[in-house]
Amino acid sequence: xAGIDALVGVGDAEVVAAAARGDCEAAVAxxxxxxxxxxxxxxxxxxxSTPPWTAYLKIAEGCDHSCSFCTIPSIRGPYxxxxxxxCVEEARRLADGGxxxxxxxxxxxxxxxxxxxxxxxxxxxxxxxxxxxxLRWIRVLYAYPRPQLDRLAGAMAEFPKxxxxxxxxxxxxxxxxxxxxxxxxxxxxxxxxLRRLRERVPGITLRTTLIVGFPGETGEAFENLMGxxxxxxxxxxxxxxxxPEAGTPAARMSGQVPEEELxxxxxxxxxxxxxxxxxxxxxxxxxxxxxxxxxxxxxGAVGRTEGxxxxxxxSVIIRGCRKAPGSFVRVRVIGADVYDIxxxxxxxxxxxxxxxxxxxxxx
Length: 363
Fold this sequence. Notes:
- The chain is of the alpha/beta class.
- It is about 30% helix and about 20% strand.
- A six-stranded parallel β-sheet has the order 1-4-5-6-7-8. Strands 9-10-11-13-12 form a five-stranded mixed β-barrel. A two-stranded antiparallel ribbon has the order 2-3.
- Helix 6 (about 150-160) runs parallel beside helix 8.
């Protein structure tokens, strides 16, 4: 590509600064074979791009799965866990800087530690993070469907700061489509997994993402997916239309679904989920929950519950509340919409960032 002075792989972070200064000698040597295996370096203080009370903690880079629609393994390289002590130290610095909500991310969070000495797992990391003073919520995102989820469910009962929230991107439920995607399991196995999670963690919020219009997705396969969503009754659900990524096996598959049909299937699935989401939100009316305030308006405050991840989920609108952004407050739910709920502040139950309510301590 004309104009490139240096080509730096994701595993060659040590030469980025030199390349940016214009001293490209080291980086130019990498042009023929840039490293695609991530290397972790001790991290210094972070400049947050999020509000000061919330942050993401990346615990691994890369991916060992071979999903037929995904380019991440070819771009990011093999799965490489961040050393546990480095994760803990980064989280401690974030908490010292005022972060109260920590969202754990990776291409696959449930595989964490499998490549580290001693093979610590995600729950071992959560136990260490839970001991950090100042953290109030710890949320797990992007959990691949695997047996480790049962151990994670146990951790939700053991560690009060661990949000009763789990994001498990399933992508589909029809066995033939999942086989073509190179994904494990099927709808029946996933329903059993969801049943166990709800049984072990009462009140858990379950989120997933699905792809419609994958090459070869027949009308029958799509109806199977609709039936699965109807039965699974996810609290949160996102739908993507299949988009062929250059270089992936899925981009070369026959049976590509026309764009108009992609949109039709997406709309049908989202309309189904909207009814489920409204029903589940209505089930919260009358209950008391904790909320994290994110902004204040002329009519009150807008925040999130432990069941709402930043940027992707709904909000709680708290009428008449004037608590500062970054504060936690106890609220009583008085109304529900498809994605958001409405509440009023529960008398005498507000508390500051980093403190746990009595109910959370005893949960």
